[in-house]
Amino acid sequence: MGWVTKMANVSFNRKRAKLKQVLGIRARLALLAVILVAPLMLERIRSLEDTRTKQIAQAAAEFTTVARHSADAQREVISSVETILKSEAFIRASAGGVSKSCDVLRASLPTSLPWIRTLLIAGQEGRIQCATNNMYVGLDLSDRPYFQQAQQSGRFVLSDFILSRPAQSPTVMAVYPVSAFSGVADAVVLATVNLDWMSKVMNNLGGRVGITAVLVDSTGTVLAAPADEHSAVGRPLDDMPLMSAIADMALRSDQDEGSLSFLAADGSQRAVSFIRIAGTNARLIASIDEDKVSAAVSRDIRTAYLQLAFVVVFVLLGALIAAEKLVIKPIEMLADMAKRLGEGDLSARAARKSLPSEFVPLARAFNAMAAQLSQRERELIATNDRLTVMASIDMLSGLANRRGFQSRLDFEWMRAQQYGSELALLMIDVDHFKLFNDTYGHLEGDSCLTLLGESLSGIAADTMGFAARYGGEEFCLLLPNTDVMRAVEIGEQVRAAVLKLCLPHITSAHMVVTVSIGVAATRPNEALRPGDLIEAADAALYAAKHRGRNNVVEHGVQAIEKGPAGMMIAASA
């Protein structure tokens, strides 16, 4: 009897296994669709009208969220501009001189921040002393409200919409006073902001039926807009038929963020959201025409009615196909995307248009995660670029360090080789500096190097050269398009400038701090390398030390057929 029962159980289990194979996910979905289609159709028809209202509200809420993200992106753009200006202001306050801060300014325009067109430094009286674009040098900004406001408030200021005088192009000016660091009325650091880039940040707000979004200044002039509204840039909102009422309501509000709903002059019901960009008087204003949005939803509802009418007819055949397309394929697609993300491919994105609506939130979440990872990677790259610039500056002397010098030497070498011009190098060493440190202490030694760096920076500015601290008490001065005779003259100028400092040095035969200078010059060619110029200048410096120090010696390498060639040669003090 037990044997019969056991056989019956085995037979039942086999039949259940076969039934599971027959009733796979496709067959189960088809069967479920047949069972549910009739009541679901009735329920769907009843809920469609409710869905209309909910979808309108959802569209408004979603757009408000996107607008808030766009406002955050604008905040980040302006914040990055403020960070750069603060860095330049700090350098200017620390440098204590126009030429040094100008040198740093010209070398520090970040390529990773394309929304900054030009960096400028204006004196206390309002005249621009230096800029990354020379067309601005000498321009008087003393009558500009943003310049006056920055000086009076001592804080970061973002101007309203203006036309740049030299370029006659629309822009806004970002301003930060050096007095914020030094506490003394001094120069002001400025940046021209690329409005086209600010409009690009808003492109995710464009191309939506019934929706308008603009970034305006405190007067209501449009600073930025999505591509489909780009013609509005530079125009006041009062000139835009559907935005004139919005301008008055949003700009008068004292709140940083808010929403308004009203009946527009054209009879349309409109909802407005506005967000103030932190630290500025600019506002991002988004307007939704509820009638147009609801019209699109109504068309979708009518389409849904037609689709539901055909569901009953095609449910059995369609369920099998739909199961493959609507369930299996999307799952495989999302799984493949997750795998690619796991392998480090941050460009992986789920094509939401090809996915069923049920999978869109999951796809959106995947895409948002991938976008955030990609953004963080870009931020890390930008941060590394900024650190690279900082790593090229010697903080004690304010000059470029050895790394920055080598980079500039390579550049000037290639340029001189391209144009067939000469290139000269001065290697400068402080005489008996170890004895100076032992006698006066390291703090005085650092002060000595700082003063030498300032003098060398001024001479570099006057001679169109590039000064750097090569290491320890050794400095160098790179002189493009300069022959050996002129280089020796500049070397004598450096030596005299150091003597003029009259820094006491009782352990020196001259009783003051002096320098020995080695000079080398060449016309770069393919047979030479930049290191040959350094070696020649080093050899000249060695000769200068052995000739009693406090002198200038020129030297070079004799040209040979297969070795380094073309170096200027001399052996005189």
TrEMBL record:
<keyword id="KW-1133">Transmembrane helix</keyword>
<dbReference type="InterPro" id="IPR003660">
    <property type="entry name" value="HAMP_dom"/>
</dbReference>
<feature type="transmembrane region" description="Helical">
    <location>
        <begin position="304"/>
        <end position="323"/>
    </location>
</feature>
<dbReference type="InterPro" id="IPR043128">
    <property type="entry name" value="Rev_trsase/Diguanyl_cyclase"/>
</dbReference>
<protein>
    <recommendedName>
        <fullName>diguanylate cyclase</fullName>
        <ecNumber>2.7.7.65</ecNumber>
    </recommendedName>
</protein>
<dbReference type="GO" id="GO:0043709">
    <property type="term" value="P:cell adhesion involved in single-species biofilm formation"/>
</dbReference>
<dbReference type="Pfam" id="PF00990">
    <property type="entry name" value="GGDEF"/>
</dbReference>
<dbReference type="GO" id="GO:1902201">
    <property type="term" value="P:negative regulation of bacterial-type flagellum-dependent cell motility"/>
</dbReference>
<dbReference type="InterPro" id="IPR029787">
    <property type="entry name" value="Nucleotide_cyclase"/>
</dbReference>
<dbReference type="InterPro" id="IPR050469">
    <property type="entry name" value="Diguanylate_Cyclase"/>
</dbReference>
<feature type="domain" description="GGDEF">
    <location>
        <begin position="421"/>
        <end position="557"/>
    </location>
</feature>
<dbReference type="GO" id="GO:0007165">
    <property type="term" value="P:signal transduction"/>
</dbReference>
<dbReference type="GO" id="GO:0052621">
    <property type="term" value="F:diguanylate cyclase activity"/>
</dbReference>
<feature type="domain" description="HAMP">
    <location>
        <begin position="325"/>
        <end position="378"/>
    </location>
</feature>
<dbReference type="InterPro" id="IPR029151">
    <property type="entry name" value="Sensor-like_sf"/>
</dbReference>
<dbReference type="Pfam" id="PF00672">
    <property type="entry name" value="HAMP"/>
</dbReference>
<keyword id="KW-0472">Membrane</keyword>
<keyword id="KW-0812">Transmembrane</keyword>
<dbReference type="GO" id="GO:0005886">
    <property type="term" value="C:plasma membrane"/>
</dbReference>
<dbReference type="InterPro" id="IPR000160">
    <property type="entry name" value="GGDEF_dom"/>
</dbReference>
